[in-house]
From TrEMBL:
It comes from Parvularcula marina. Gene3D superfamilies: 2,3-Dihydroxybiphenyl 1,2-Dioxygenase, domain 1. The lineage of its organism: Bacteria, Pseudomonadati, Pseudomonadota, Alphaproteobacteria, Parvularculales. This is Uncharacterized protein.
Length: 125
């Protein structure tokens, strides 16, 4: 019996409007927030195609004390991964180009405006 339903990473942001613009270029839309307009909110949920991320405003001092981790998002297949890469490569700086990795995945990655690393991947197998 499955007991877990979903994972919603909370990503630190220094400026909500900058992050909403960044993620908006990637097709993510706000689905809730602690106030409107969302650009002035301290906490906003964004979503695209079933993937939901939460954005929380941090001060520079709080960001220095907070640990962030790389987020790895598994895609439904290689075709979806390649299509997403092709869609996004003209919109943002992809720091880890689409490539096969020695650990058995095909993936690409980038940093958001707060330097949180995101990787999108499929198993090569």
């Amino acid at each position: 019996m499955a007991i877990f339903k979903a994972l919603h990473p909370v990503c630190p942001v220094l400026d909500m409007s900058v992050h909403l613009h960044f993620w908006g270029k990637l097709g993510f839309l706000p689905v809730f927030g602690d106030r409107e307009p969302y650009e002035t909110a301290d906490y906003v949920g964004i979503a695209r195609d079933g993937l939901e991320l939460h954005l929380q405003t941090f001060t520079r001092e709080q960001l220095q004390e907070t640990q962030t981790m790389a987020l790895r998002i598994e895609m439904t297949g290689k075709q979806a991964l390649e299509a997403l890469h092709d869609e996004w490569k003209e919109r943002i700086s992809i720091s880890a180009p689409l490539a096969e990795k020695p650990w058995g995945t095909v993936e690409f990655g980038f940093y958001d405006p707060a330097n949180t690393p995101f990787f999108f991947y499929v198993d090569r197998g």
